[in-house]
């Protein structure tokens, strides 16, 4: 039986590889001219530390609060981010995400990372899975501004109401690595962002029933050869009932 100290989880192995493959210094060079200095106010966390946390969010589908919790709970995450003392709180993590959005740098960062992964043979671009997930935000108005975040909106999923934003995500079907992320208010329909997720030639796109209705044009007709839709649960039940009655 291997010693506990020598055990390396799949997450740890993945992060060790990303530590080597991702061009961290190149990405830092893009962001550094915009990143706040320590000349005024509280000294900010190092740029590379916050960048690595943002990548953890992308790779493991973590909200700002979930990222803070994961950094406290998981040693491999802290080691990857380079945290040896204080963990950034969820507000600091959110502010860095807004910093990337303000300078439209998030897509540049992800594109540069994905280019290196493709060059290393980790992303073969044969199949892509697209989906959207709702990220909840506080709906209370008991705050300094006395109002909700104007970037967030309310939406309904099933019988449940949510307030927040929506992350539209494309991942490589073979590796599960994130290829592209588009963020919108929660009330944005999944189909509206399909063409923004699939922008390069790909053989197969896997999508759930939320992407039906637009046909091939809804997921970029020029790029997709095959569309595979997951049926809604109600449709599956109807099909099972029909099969049983035959």
Task: Write a structural description.
The chain folds into two domains: 4-117, no CATH class; 125-245, Nucleotidyltransferase, domain 5 (2-Layer Sandwich). 39% of the residues lie in helices and 20% in strands. The protein contains nine helices and six strands. Strands 1, 2, 3, 4, 5 and 6 form a six-stranded mixed beta sheet that branches. The protein is globular and about 50 Å long.
> Per the principal axes of the C-alpha atoms, what is the gross shape?
globular
What structural class is derived from the secondary structure elements?
alpha/beta
Q: Average pLDDT, to the nearest integer?
A: 79
CATH class of the largest domain: Alpha Beta
Corresponding CATH architecture of the largest domain: 2-Layer Sandwich
CATH topology of the largest domain: Nucleotidyltransferase, domain 5
Q: Please state the CA-atom Rg, rounded to the nearest Å.
A: 20 Å
The number of helical elements comes to: 9
Strand count, sense and barrel status of the largest sheet are:
6 strands, mixed
**What is the percentage of strand-forming residues?**
15-25%
Offer a concise description of the structure.
Involved in the transposition of the insertion sequence IS5. By secondary structure, this protein is an alpha/beta fold.
How is this fold's topology laid out?
Blueprint: H1 10-21, H2 24-31, H3 47-60, H4 64-73, H5 75-81, H6 90-102, H7 106-119, E1 127-136, E2 153-157, E3 160-172, E4 178-185, H8 194-197, E5 202-207, E6 224-229, H9 233-245
Parallel strand pairs: 1-5, 5-6
Antiparallel strand pairs: 1-3, 2-3, 3-4
Helix pairs in contact: 4-5, 4-6
């Amino acid at each position: 039986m291997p010693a506990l100290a020598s055990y390396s989880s799949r997450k740890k192995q993945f992060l060790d590889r990303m530590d080597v493959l991702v061009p961290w210094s190149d990405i830092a060079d893009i962001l550094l001219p915009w990143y706040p200095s320590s000349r005024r106010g509280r000294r900010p966390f190092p740029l590379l530390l916050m960048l690595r946390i943002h990548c953890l969010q992308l790779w493991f589908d973590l909200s700002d609060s979930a990222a803070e919790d994961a950094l406290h709970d998981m040693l491999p995450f802290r080691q990857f981010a380079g945290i040896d003392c204080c963990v950034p709180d969820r507000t600091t993590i959110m502010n860095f995400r807004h910093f990337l959005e303000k300078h439209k740098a998030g897509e540049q960062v992800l594109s540069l990372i994905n280019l290196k992964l493709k060059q290393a043979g980790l992303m073969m671009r044969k199949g892509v899975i697209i989906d959207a997930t709702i990220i909840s935000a506080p709906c209370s108005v008991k705050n300094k501004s006395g109002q909700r975040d104007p970037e967030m909106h309310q939406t309904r999923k099933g019988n449940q109401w949510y307030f927040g934003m929506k992350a539209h995500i494309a991942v490589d079907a073979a590796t599960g690595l994130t290829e592209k992320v588009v963020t919108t208010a929660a009330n944005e329909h999944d189909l509206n962002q399909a063409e923004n997720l699939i922008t390069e030639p790909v053989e197969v796109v896997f999508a759930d029933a939320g992407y039906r209705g637009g046909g091939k044009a809804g997921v970029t007709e020029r790029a997709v050869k095959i569309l595979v839709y997951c049926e809604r649960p109600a449709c599956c039940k109807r099909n099972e009932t029909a099969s049983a009655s035959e």
